[in-house]
Amino acid sequence: MLVNTLACWLSLGSLAFAGAIPRNADPLPPSRVIVERQATTSTSVPDGQCTNGPRTRNCWSSGFSIATDFDAKAPPAGKTVTYNLEITNTTLNPDGAGDRNVMLINNQFPGPVIRASWGDTLVVNVKNSLADNGTGIHWHGIRQLNSCQHDGVPGVTECPIAPGKSRQYVFKCTQFGTSWYHSHWSAQYSEGTLGTLIIDGPATANYDEDLGTLPITEWYSLPGFTLNEQAQHSQVGPPKPDNILVNGTHVNANGGGSYFTMKVKKGKKYRIRIINTSVDTTFSVSMDKHPFTVITSDFVPIKPIVADQLTLAIGQRYDVVINANQTADNYWFRVSVGTDCGSNDMVGKDIPLGAILQYDGAPDGNPTSTGVTMRTSCNDETNLVPFVPNSVPTDIVPQAEMQLNHHQDATDNFLFRWTIDGSPIIVDWNQPSLQTALEGSSTFGNNSNVYEMPSSNWYFWWIQTTSFIAIPHPIHLHGHDFYILGSGAGTWDGSTAGLNFANPTRRDTATLPGGGYLLLAFPADNPGLWVMHCHIAWHASQGLSVQFLERKTEIKGAIGSTAAFDQGCNEWDDYWFPGNHPYNQTDSGI
Ligand SMILES: *[C@@H]1O[C@H](CO)[C@@H](O)[C@H](O)[C@H]1NC(C)=O
Ligand SMILES: *[C@@H]1O[C@H](CO)[C@@H](O)[C@H](O)[C@H]1NC(C)=O
Ligand SMILES: *[C@@H]1O[C@H](CO)[C@@H](O)[C@H](O)[C@H]1NC(C)=O
Ligand SMILES: *[C@@H]1O[C@H](CO)[C@@H](O)[C@H](O)[C@H]1NC(C)=O
Ligand SMILES: *[C@@H]1O[C@H](CO)[C@@H](O)[C@H](O)[C@H]1NC(C)=O
Ligand SMILES: *[C@@H]1O[C@H](CO)[C@@H](O)[C@H](O)[C@H]1NC(C)=O
Ligand SMILES: *[C@@H]1O[C@H](CO)[C@@H](O)[C@H](O)[C@H]1NC(C)=O
Question: What does the alpha-carbon distance between residue 488 and residue 444 come to, in Å, rounded to a whole number?
Answer without folding.
Answer: 33
